[in-house]
Specification:
The chain is of the alpha/beta class and about 325 residues long. The protein has 10 helices and 8 strands. The chain has an 8-stranded mixed sheet, with helices on both faces. The longest helix is centred in the C-terminal third of the chain and has 34 residues.
Length: about 325
Amino acid sequence: MDTLISVVFSFRNEESNIPVAVTRTRDAIQAAGCDYELIFVDDDSSDSSATVLAGFHAADPRIKVVTMSRRFGVSECVLAGMAVARGDAVVYLDTDLQDPPELISEMIARWRDGADIVHTVRSHRLGEHPAKMWLTRQAYRLIQWASTINLPINAGDFKLLSRRAVDQLLALPESDPYLRGLVSWIGFPQAFVTYERQARHAGETHFPIFSRNPWKTAVNGFISFSFTPLYAILATGLTGLAIGVPLLLAGLMGLVFGGSGGLAVGALALLAWASLMAAIGLVGLYIVRIYKDVRGRPRYVVRSTLGIDGQPAPKG
């Protein structure tokens, strides 16, 4: 068991799921003949998750904890876990057990066959509202259509990365990281494992359809890997000119022959205003991302660690 697999769990308030996640994950990795470390990154939980994990760590020092100073988000917690992971490969997944840890042994096999990144692709999603599933599928398709790289559809936050892939990912400094895109962007040989996503093992989802996180994730995915909005602004401007010039000419001709030309002028003014507002809104999304990157704040701040030598340095 010379191969070490690090598993990073990003979570908040999952005290009911942690014991089962530990047991199933350990069994899956040991079945693959590997050693393990399980790194639980606590996004400032308010339940007894910390107490549960302290008990597990006391019994098995390979179970480790990184606690954030406040809520930072799923991707930031994953990166914080990767920053302290020592494994030859790193797996990251949610703690709600919708993504089955038993797949880890198959992911390790694909990695041993030469893949630096192993995606898991959901064939079905059980226990989720049909409206949320439909919106999720459309968001994936929109991001894939607009992206400048190939982004796998229905491949969520359950992946295995080789050590060199992890190192490359941690070297990327951008804020509001869209991990599903960045993992594909870094390249290297990539493989896929298909599975049926289960319903949450216990508790309620932390990301209902009308919560902030799903919409933020979708927007980040779209603007992180697509210049389509910028091209759309240009297309809107050219279309406005193509429509506006004939309308202006028609208005001028109307004035020459005694008409008012008011309709043409009004339509042109309305079109110009709408085009300007759309352009400002879309460009604003990119300006926000530039602002966040330029100001240089760390992506996360660690409050404490358990079982980890030294506190991980925040990644800018």
